Amino acid sequence: MKLLWVGIAFVVVLAKWVNGFVEFSLNETEISLMEGFGVSKAGYNPLMVGLTLIHGAGAKGAVCLDGTLPGYHWHRGYGSGANNWLIQLEGGGWCNNVRNCVYRKKTRRGSSTYMEKLIPFTGILSEKAQENPDFYNWNRVKLRYCDGASFTGDSEHKGAQLQFRGERIWWAAMEDLMSKGMRNARQTLLSGCSAGGLASILHCDDFKSLFSGNTRVKCLSDAGLFLDAVDVSGGRTLRNLYSGVVGLQGVGKSLPRICTNHLDPTSCFFPQNLIASVKTPLFILNAAYDSWQIQSSLAPPSADPHGFWHECRLNHAKCSSTQIHFLQGFRNQMLKVISRFSRSRQNGLFINSCFAHCQTERQDTWFADDSPVIRNKPIALAVGDWYFDRAAVKDIDCPYPCDNTCHNLVFR
Q1: Handedness of CA 385, 207, 85, 125 (dihedral sign)
Q2: Does residue 129 lie in a domain region?
Q3: What is the pLDDT of residue 35?
């Protein structure tokens, strides 16, 4: 009987721990869903590309959180795209304290041991012209994300056996790819989704510095415009998260001096304080009602202890008029942030009024028969028009609920 009660007590404690752990790791789950590879279709077989570890990285100290080698997936270009390169930086949130990072280093977000050995290349990474009209035959590389600070940290925590080497991973990967032919590139595009979208902003001018003036170099940030916004409780959830990331991982020394000369390092991890000073042509693709930011920055459970936002944060159709008004304020803040950036002729914009996150790698949102559009132009064609200077692209959608082409994310 005593053993039975001990067992019941253990189960109760375990259940509470699991519930707490699910809450703690919810962002990871949501991010994985948001960065899905697109809709499943019967008979659809995407190109699967293998993982390449960067064997020279270890000697440079360019390692994942757990000390394993970083890696990327590369599909060679051919024909007219043989000397063109697209680098896609993987997303996946951040880790802002030792506990988070210790958990993360036992996942694909912190260790190449746990990374998928094959991943599907869809959307902007697809090899099919009908799915990816402008970049299908380029060298397409997906750089895996295993540092937890958008490829910017350079520090360590010996006690927890954590390596924060995102900045070194970035340079080791670029050096490796340059040695494999990227140094001869005629055209290049640095892209990224979510935390990788932030990284593409942070490293855009670094990427440009690798090439001569004869190479066309541009950058694309997908769902990387994270705002320093007030949450539903009046606090600043994301600023607190970023402060932990920047402090723990030694990010400050990797941030652009043009920003840190007049703002604190945490502020300089926010793209709103960086985009106007990026010299390289940059395209910002973002949902005006970014699903990740709603769930994890604006209305996370920590800012909503009574659960007033619980249904709304998972499904926009269940938001009250007051909540929609709050989200319209977030959209207005985003439009204000990009106003100066958009005045530059070299930059591009696609801000659609969707509840979405990461739209370049998903085939259904990048380029398909029913893709989201602004003025009848899907994302893939907007990016292509901007990259190849076929047209100026400064597309900003009307506010919700006017756009019926969105592929809005709904969570259970």
Answers
A1: negative
A2: yes
A3: 54
Backbone angles phi, psi at 118, to 5 degrees: -135, 135
Say if strands 373-374 and 377-378 run parallel, antiparallel, or are unpaired: antiparallel
Residue 257 resides in a domain? yes
Look at residue 11 in the predicted model and tell me its pLDDT. 37
Instruction: Please tell me which residue in 112, 191, 194, 371 is annotated as part of the active site.
Output: 194
Residue 34: band (very low, low, confident or very high) from pLDDT cuts 50, 70, 90: low
Amino acid letter, residue 92: G
Instruction: Tell me if the pTM is above 0.70.
Output: yes
The total number of structural domains in the chain stands at: 1
Q: Known catalytic residue: 147?
A: no
**Domain at 378, CATH number:** 3.40.50
* Catalytic residue check, 304: no
- End-to-end, the C-alpha distance of the chain in Å comes to 39
Q: Which domain holds residue 198?
A: 45-396
Q: Where does residue 70 rank: exposed (0-12), middle (13-18), buried (19+ CB within 10 A)?
A: buried
Residues 357, 364, 395, 407: which is the catalytic one? 357
